[in-house]
Predict the 3D structure of the following.
Amino acid sequence: MLLQLLTGGVLLGCIYSLVAMGLSLIYGVMGIVNFAHGALVMLAMYASYWLNTYLHLDPVLGTPVVALIMFGLGIVIYHLIITKVLRGPFLARMLVTFGLSIFIINLAQFLWTPDYRRIMESISKGTFMLGPIFIELPKLVASIGSLIVAALVYWFLRRTKTGLAIQAISIDRAAASLMGINLEKLNGIAFGIGLACAGAAGALLASFYYIFPDVGTMFGLVALVAVALGGFGSTEGALIGAILIGIIETLGGFYVGPEYKYALIFLAYVLIVIVRPKGLMGWGAD
Amino acid sequence: MQNRKLVGLLPFLALALAIVAPLVLKARFQQHVLVIVVLYAVMSQAWNIMAGYAGMVSVGQAAFFGLGAYISTVLFVQYKVNPWIGFLAAGLGTALFATIIGLPFSRLKGRYFAIGTIALAQMIKVVFENWPQVGGATGIIVPMTKEGFWNFQFHSSKLGYYYIVLAMLVLVVAFIYFMERSKMGFYFKAIRENEEVATGLGVNKTLYKLIAIAISAGITGMCGTILAQYILYAEPSYMFDHTVSVTIALIAVFGGSGNIVGPIIGSVILMPISELTRAWLGSGGTGIDLMIYGAFIVLMCVYEPDGLTGIAAKVGRRLKARREGRVAA
C-alpha cells in the first residue's frame, strides 16, 4: 500500500514540478512571485480543451502547441504589465500578479461559465499493473511528459547561449547588463518560458482532470509552496519541493483524510521554513 | 501658519462628515456601503500596523478575521455569552493566537512570510470546514434577538453597526497616531527598514514583531465579530476567504501604506467601487464584477505603485518646487 501511495505521490509531484519550475524561473530572473501562475495553468487547460473540441487535437499530443501559445502570451503579458512594475515597490510587484490572477479566473468564468468540462477522448486511457502497483496511464503519461519538458527547459538554460544569458541575469543583473545582455528582451523570453511550462503542465493535466475556472488556484498555490519550500531562486529546490509535496499530498490524503491534504502541505511548508527560513536550497536576498 | 491650523482641523472635519453621512445617505444599500467602507478601513489600518510600519507583509489577514468571527459567534450561540463580551474575547483570543503563531513566523522574512500567512489562512479554513462542533462547512447562523446596543444587533436600520465601526476606526486611528510618535513606532520602522541594524542598536526584534502581529490580529478579529453580527452568519468559505486578505492589503497599498491617511482614503475609494460593481454586475455570477476588480488592481500597480498618498506627496513636492522657483526668479 505504501509503495502504491508513494508512486502516486511521485507521479503527482512530477506534474507539480513543471508548474513550480516556471514559477522558479520567473522569480529567479526578475524577482516576481507570479501569483497568476495557477490561473495560467487553468487557461492552458481550456486552450487544450478547445483545441480538442474544435480541431480534435489530442491533449497529450497538443502539449507543444499549447506551450507555444502560452509562450506567446507570456511575452505579451511581460511587455504589457510585468516590465512596468519591475522597478516598483515590493507590494506592487506582489499584488500585480494577484490582480492578474483574479482577472484571468473571472474572464474564464465570464467566457466559458463555471461549468465543469472534461476531455473525453485522449490517447492515454485506462490503467495497468506494474508488479504489485496499480498505475493510471494518463497520470503516468502526464508525469513523463512533465519530466521531458522539464529536461528540455533545463537543457535550454544550461546549454544554449540564450539560456546561459538568462542564468547570468538571475545571478547578477547589473553585471549581466554590463556584459551586453539585453535585459528587457531576455526577461520577456524567461517569462514566456515560465508560462510555457505552465502551459505544458496545463495541457498534460487536461488529459485526465476536470476543467473549470477555479481549477488552477490550488495548483498555483501548491506550486508556489513547492518553490518556497525548495527555496526561491533554486530550480533543483523547486523540483525536490514539488515531489515532496506530491508525496505529502497522497500519503496525507490517505492516512489523515482527503479534506486535510492541502492543509498538510501548508503545515509542512510552515514547519520546514521555520527551521530553514530560506527553504531547503534557497539563497540570495528575500 | 494659517495652513497648518487648517490641516490640523481636517481630521475633525472628516469625522464630522462621517458622522453625518448616514443621515444623508438613507437607502439601505448606501448605508451598507458605508458600513463596509469603514469596516475595511479599520482592518486595513490593522494591516498597516503589521505591514506598513513593521514591514511584515501579510496576505492572510482572513485567518484573524474569521477566527474573531467564530470566537464571538460560538460563545454567543453555544454558551449564551453576550456579543459584547464575545467582541472583547475575539480581540484577546485572536491576539493570543497570533502571538503563539507569530513566534515561529517572526523568523520568516519578505515573501517567505507572505506565503506563510497565505498558508496559515488556508489551513485554518480547512480546520473550520471540517469541525462539526462549529457547524463544519455550512457554518453557524446567529439567532436574531431583540435589537439594541446591548444585544449588538440592529434590524430596523444599519446605523447602529455603522457607529460602532466608526467608533472603532476613531480609536484605532488615535492609537496609531500615538504609536507613530512613541518609541514603539520607531522600533517598528527600524525593524522594517533593516532588521539586523535594528537588532544591533538594541531593539528586541522578536518582541516588537510579536507586539505588532498581536495588535494587528486583535483588531482584525474584532472586525470579524462585527461582520458576523452584521450578517448574522459565520461560515468558513466567507470568513476565511482569500479575497478578504487580498482586499485588506490592496486598500492599504492603493491608499498608500505606512501612514494613517492611506488606508482610509483607499477604503473610501475602493470599497464603494467593489460593492457597486458587485451589486450591478455580480448578480448573474458571470464574474464581470471581479474581472473589473482584477483589472483595476493591475492598472493600479502599473501606474500608481506608490498609492494615492504617494501621488499627493509627488504633487506637493512639485508645487513647492514651483513656488521656490518663482521666489528665486
